[in-house]
Amino acid sequence: MLPPISLPTHAPLEPLHLPWLKQAGIEVDILRLDLIDPLISGNKWFKLIHHLQAAREAGAEGVISLGGAHSNHLHALAAAGKRFGFATVGLLRGHAQQTPTVVDLQAFGMQLHWLGYAGYRARHEADFWLPWQARYPQLHAIPEGGGGLAGALGCAQILTDVRQSLDYHGWWLAVGTGTTLAGLVLAEVGAHPVYGAMAVPDDHGVAENIAAILQQAQAPDSGYHLLDASRGGFAKTDAHLLDFIARSEAESGVPLEPLYTGKALLALHDQVAAGAFARGTRLIFVHSGGLQGRRALLNPCTN
Asked: What pTM was computed for the model?
């Protein structure tokens, strides 16, 4: 059985100082989920809270989940397994490669299986988990990215401290699967809008995932807005984005990464420049962590 597992859930809330925000008269406070823990950081811990609790209640000895070669989810999960002493197995997209993330997964003791690309695309099929459950009957399966209603209910806890801290007019965050956004929508119950900057293209099914979670929770499919921030595809970066991140880090002192938080901040910049928010608006920007993924760009590994 998994041991009791707990981490702090209180994250610092800091004013985000950037000249374009000041010029527009927009206040943004950044919720530094990246500072919760050095390894099990960001929204990943919130997504895992209920999944790990379910694994413990089921008497599982460990967990099995899915992700890519740079997966923040698998990185946090493997780190938790190493720290708290439970087994972890990762099913990875594509073919074997050595990225900084994969090196860490191996060091944390996660057993890896590479599914290829066709094999990974089959993860949504009804019988996908059957052979893995037969091979690892002692493990509890966690959806890709810690998603689903359980992941969203964990992310709903993000709102607790903020609600008691300040007055605000809405949330802004990067969206990968939509789980964190769905959790905030559930917690807000329509009190404040949640703006999701999609770091992945429309064909990744983000809107469908959010709608499914809200439907399962018997909540209305409303209270949020999705904007395309993918810049042409999943994990796509470009010179403009990287330059914007470098300038933003220098001006604010807040570290960003180019796949999620950097894209979300650039999307916010563009919306502010377009006059989408009135002067005096106060938003909360969720720093969802994922900084370990920066290494693939700054110091890439090769096979």
From this structure: 0.93
Domain boundaries, the chain: 13-38+149-298, 43-146
CA gap 5, 150 in Å, rounded: 16
What is the Cα–Cα distance from 97 to 303, expressed in whole angstroms?
5
CA atoms within 13 A on the CB side of 67: 30
Q: How far apart are CA 186 and CA 198, in angstroms?
A: 19
Confidence of residue 302 (pLDDT cuts 50, 70, 90): very low
Token representation of residue 194: 């949640």
Sequence letter at residue 283: L
Distance, CA of 107 to CA of 242 (rounded, Å): 30
Is the pLDDT reported for residue 303 higher than 70? Answer: no
Contact between 88 and 63 under an 8 Å Cβ cutoff? The reply is yes
Is residue 284 within 8 Å of 29, Cβ to Cβ? yes
CATH number of 43-146: 3.40.50.1100
- To the nearest 10°, report the CA torsion of 260, 13, 77, 264: -10
Q: Residue 207: helix, strand or coil by DSSP?
A: helix
Neighbours of 121 (CB within 10 A): 12
Q: What is the mean pLDDT of the chain?
A: 93
Q: Which of 148, 139, 89, 140 is nearest to 115 (CA)?
A: 89
**pLDDT, tens digit, 9 for 90 and up, residues 32-60:** 999 999 899 899 999 999 999 999 999 99
Q: Selecting from 3.40.50.300, 3.30.1050.10, 3.40.50.1100, 3.90.1150.10, what CATH number does the domain 13-38+149-298 have?
A: 3.40.50.1100
What is residue 161's predicted lDDT score, i.e. its pLDDT? 66
